[in-house]
Every structure is written in structure tokens, then in C-alpha cells.
Amino acid sequence: MFSRKELMKYRQIRYLTIGAGILLAIMLMLALFTSHRLDHTDEAFSQWVFTWRQPVLDTFFATVTDLAGAFGIIVLSTIIVLTLVFYFHQRTLAFWYALMMLVSNLLVNPLLKNVFQRERPALSVRLVEAGSYSFPSGHSLGAVTAFGGLMLILAYLYRNKNWRTPTNIGLLLLIGLIGFSRIYLGVHYLSDVLTGFALGAFCLGLSVEILNRHVSNDS
């Protein structure tokens, strides 16, 4: 994905992967061994978030959360992959993005959901419908992998730093809003979202490491 000189500039990706892996391990250990204490913290945080509810915010967060829903992720991923293949002629980059999205969202996340089988918040507090288990948050993972992957692609294709910073800030803000929306809408707990973020960042960073090694070996 990057040349050897460029890899030095993107060393923070490796640090991000390690940090995300540590946070992910901590969250998984907490879920396994201190679930009652975690539940208490999650419930308290959710109740605090629910005090913010009002019709305008209900509509706003319901719209935001759909950006990382199944349909939103499929549309975004398809557009990115097709653009990389047919406009930029970056087949390797397109294959990396598609495979990373498929493995993290359709394999890793469902696997963890079925391992932990954590029930979602009560139906009485939900503002939208949601199926499957709660831990970790698939929307949070999807937001990090989809929009985080887009950040890396844009950084690779365009070297103009003048607009890169505001673009990255905007995408990071969107990721945060999507995660928060899951709590606000009453379909996830704080720990679900944090674990989804950590899992998404770990999958994204690990996939970049694998891709870079593959490209280095081929060059």
C-alpha cells in the first residue's frame, strides 16, 4: 500500500493497531470476568444519555445510525471499491478494502456476538428496532472500518495535507456520532460501542500491516 519511505510516515497505524488491541483485550476481559460491574456502569451511562432525548435529536441520531447500517455500509463499500477499480485503477487497494470489510463485519463481529450472547437493552428504551446480540456493536465496528478505511485510502491517493486534516476530523466525528447514536437510541451499551470501536480499529490496522507486508514482498 505504501512505499518503504511512506511506511515510516504511517508508523502511527502500527501504534493504533497495538493500542486498539490492548483496549479490545481489556474490554473482552471485563465482559468475561466482571460482567455485573460492567452492566452497572453501562446502565448508569445509558440513563444519563436518555436524559438528552428530544424529538429533534431522535430524528438526527436515527438518521446518523443508518449510515453504518447494513444498507449504508454496502452502498458505501460498493462505491469505494468500484471507484478504486475503474477510476483510480487501484485493484490491490480495492481488494484490500473489500476483504477487510467482509472479514471484520461478516465474520469477526458475528463470531464475537455469538460467543458473548449479551442481550440488548430493554425494548422499553429502544427508539429503533435491532436484532441479534448486543456485544460488540456492529454499527461501531462498521463505522471504524468503513470510514477509517476511507481515511487511509484518501491519504494514499491524495497527498495534499491542506484538506486532509479537516476531512479526517469530519470522518472521525462521524464515527463518534454513529457510536453514540447506538447508545442514544437504546440499542447498545457504552461497552458495546467501545468494544466495537476497538475491534474495528484493530481489524483495520492489522489488515494494513498484512497488505504492506504483501506489497513489500512482491516489490
TrEMBL record:
The chain crosses the membrane at residues 12-33, 67-87, 94-112, 132-157, 169-187. PANTHER family: AT30094P, SPHINGOSINE-1-PHOSPHATE PHOSPHOHYDROLASE. InterPro entries: PAP2/HPO, PAP2/HPO_sf. Keywords: Membrane, Transmembrane, Transmembrane helix. This is Phosphatidic acid phosphatase type 2/haloperoxidase domain-containing protein. SMART domains: acidPPc. The keyword Transmembrane helix applies. Gene3D superfamilies: Phosphatidic acid phosphatase type 2/haloperoxidase (1.20.144.10). It comes from the Bacteria. Residues 93-208 form the Phosphatidic acid phosphatase type 2/haloperoxidase domain. CDD domains: PAP2_like_2.
